[in-house]
């Protein structure tokens, strides 16, 4: 099995590997984001800080609810800014998705955490949340749901880093979020 340090070393020696890392970020998952950050942090630290700062300033949606930004959102904005496609503020104002997967989004306000998602067909849906530092998992919802848009709300968790997992029939989706 390839160790992370070996993978990082390989990517550092093979500059074209950064495009594969960016592709992994776009597909979701934490490994691509960690690799991207480790490969670019020394040269692009000010840009990473600008992205994080802009995300903090733009932490509410149009209805005034707090948005819980995923680490994939931060990484995607960094990539767009690094490639010079647009500056961070423009990326946010042009509607860059706050989700690593347009399929489901997570937002929070002072009292609740809300998950919004669309189903193309009726499906069995399981939604679970876990604190990444503790092994327990809390099932938020487990039921059959009809086609269309769905919103699930539950009490806002304490500050921390969480994984939101969704299983729809046999497909699994995951998002890491930070609640401040």
Summary?
This protein has 180 residues and is an alpha+beta fold.
Index terms:
180 residues; single chain; four-stranded antiparallel sheet; 5 helices
Overview of this structure, please?
- The protein is an alpha+beta fold and 180 residues long.
- The chain is built from five helices and eight strands.
- It has helices at residues 4-13, 17-27, 30-57, 71-82, 88-93, and strands at residues 66-67, 104-108, 112-119, 123-131, 138-145, 148-155, 160-168, 171-179.
- The strands form two sheets. Strands 1-2-3-6 form a four-stranded antiparallel β-sheet, with no helix packed on it. A four-stranded antiparallel β-sheet has the order 5-4-7-8, with no helix packed on it.
- A hairpin with a 2-residue loop joins strand 7 (160-168) and strand 8.
